[in-house]
């Protein structure tokens, strides 16, 4: 039986590396995969999933308007897909997560999603919230804070290296913009922020 998987973490935990390795394992055994990534994240170039360690692969892109079920159903009419891989899954809409559910349940194709759980404010992304609610299996990809504890939060830094507390939920950036921290050090960085 196919399943919907959600591999989540903070920035720089190796999610894209794990995705690329898993896709490679399928292809090495003669099975086709479909790689999807958010169009708005073009840090490695549009339509490309890349890891900080230097590996990368071309991918199809999605926008919030795309019907992923219809796209995969059309692909399956032409190709036999063994697995769907979705990078930057936090940028999925709730409706798109339900479309992935239908791919798993109705088309019997496994879907592996990789993305951030929370934003720099400590709030769930809509796509991540839906995946946490609907995924058959969830796996945390771990990384560490500068203190050695598990990092579960991320801060967004300004040009002066100060942690931001406000701003749009989505701002594309890498190590120059985001730092993964444990909850204690995140609270310290953002001034022990309390919920509004």
TrEMBL record:
This protein's UniProt keywords: ATP-binding, Cytoplasm, DNA synthesis, Kinase, Metal-binding, Nucleotide-binding, Transferase, Zinc
Enumerate the catalysed reactions.
thymidine + ATP = dTMP + ADP + H(+)
User: Which Gene Ontology molecular function entries are recorded, alphabetically?
Assistant: ATP binding; thymidine kinase activity; zinc ion binding
* Residue sites binding substrate per the record: 170-173, 178
Superkingdom, taxonomy of origin: Bacteria
Question: Where are the catalytic residues?
Answer: 88 (proton acceptor)
Q: Principal place where this protein is found?
A: cytoplasm
Which of this chain's residues are annotated to bind ATP? Answer: 9-16, 87-90
Q: Which residues form the signal peptide?
A: none
Q: What is its EC number?
A: 2.7.1.21
Annotated GO biological processes are: DNA biosynthetic process; thymidine metabolic process
Localization, per the record, is:
Cytoplasm
Gene3D superfamilies per UniProt: 3.30.60.20, P-loop containing nucleotide triphosphate hydrolases
Q: Record's Pfam families? A: TK (PF00265)
| Protein residues bound to Zn(2+) | 145, 147, 182, 185
Which top class of enzyme applies to this chain?
Answer: transferase
Q: Name one GO cellular component term.
A: cytosol
What family does the database annotate? Belongs to the thymidine kinase family.
Cross-referenced HAMAP family? Thymidine_kinase
Assembly: Homotetramer.
Protein name (database record): Thymidine kinase
Which species is listed as the source?
Psychromarinibacter sediminicola
């Amino acid at each position: 039986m196919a399943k919907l998987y959600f591999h989540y973490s903070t920035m720089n935990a190796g999610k894209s590396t794990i995705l690329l390795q898993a896709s490679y394992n399928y292809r090495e055994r003669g099975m086709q995969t479909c790689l999807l990534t958010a169009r708005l994240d073009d840090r490695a170039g549009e339509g490309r999933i890349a890891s900080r360690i230097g590996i990368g692969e071309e991918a199809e892109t999605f926008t919030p308007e795309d019907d992923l079920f219809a796209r995969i159903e059309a692909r399956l009419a032409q190709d036999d897909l063994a697995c769907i891989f979705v990078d930057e899954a936090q940028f999925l809409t709730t409706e798109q997560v339900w479309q992935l559910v239908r791919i798993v349940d109705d088309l019997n194709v496994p879907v592996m999603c990789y993305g951030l759980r929370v934003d720099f404010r400590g709030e769930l992304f809509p796509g991540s919230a839906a995946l946490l609610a609907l995924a058959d299996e969830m796996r945390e990809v771990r990384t560490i804070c500068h203190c050695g504890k598990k990092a579960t939060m991320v801060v967004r830094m300004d040009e002066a290296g100060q942690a931001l507390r406000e701003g749009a939920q989505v701002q594309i950036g890498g190590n120059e913009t985001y730092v993964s921290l444990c909850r204690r050090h995140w609270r310290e960085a953002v001034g022990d922020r309390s919920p509004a």
